[in-house]
Amino acid sequence: MQGEGGINVASLPWLKRLREITAVRGILLILDEIQAGIGRTGKFFAFEHADIVPDLVTVSKSISGSGLPMSLVLIRPDVDVWKPGAHTGTFRGNNLAFVSARAALETYWADDAFMKGVAAKSELLRAELEAIAAEHPELAFDVRGRGLFYGIATDVDRGLAGRISKQAFARGLVIETSGAYDEVLKFLPSLTITEDELRAGLAIVRESLAAALAG
User: Fold this and answer.
1) For residue 149, what are the domain limits?
2) Measured between alpha carbons, how far is 180 from 201 in angstroms, rounded to an integer?
3) Cα dist. 152→46, 72, 87 in Å?
4) Are 128 and 73 contained in the same domain?
5) Do 133 and 207 belong to one domain?
6) Mind listing the pLDDT tens digit for each residue in 126-164?
7) Cα separation of 209 and 215, whole Å?
8) C-alpha–C-alpha distance, residues 121 and 102, integer Å
9) How far apart are the C-alpha atoms of 118 and 39, rounded to whole Å?
10) Which of 73, 108, 143 is the last residue of a domain?
11) pLDDT at position 93, please?
12) At a CB cut-off of 8 Å and minimum separation 6, what does 104 contact?
């Protein structure tokens, strides 16, 4: 899934075919899971929805479990040519982040309860965004995403997402925009958000949309 590109979801058949082509031609398949990974799309990795195994995976941000700086590159052993200490970077070797990451993995991924909660909140989020779209057919809203990684966009008024974001900020809610023209209002709530908190945030989005349309 593209995040900054506008919450664009690759189809599962396309991903499967990509894995087949790269495997046949001996091309490494590298997947960026920095925004989409660690439960964001409803599975630990976004590529798991397609039932494929890449050669390299980049992860960061959520992997620390507490917002601390941390990033990792996961490599299939048979293609790992690095020697110890050869792979360096800005967010390597942060001991506190490693400790919090382990604690988060052991706490939230011990069973499937955490992902069941994400799935329930995902249904709530998608239903609310589709309801908003249905209430404004003139804007031809496109709702897209998976898990707790959603966007709502319109090409009718590409500046609308930015105006909604500004109105939301004035009401105490921080929400980003993305896409080539910043035309997508981007929803990435905390995976541990409660349903009440999610509903409260969506209510602010509704208020902000009304204010943005009122001009």
Assistant:
1) 113-214
2) 25
3) 19, 30, 38
4) no
5) yes
6) 999 999 999 999 999 999 999 999 999 999 999 999 999
7) 10
8) 25
9) 8
10) 108
11) 66
12) 64, 65, 66
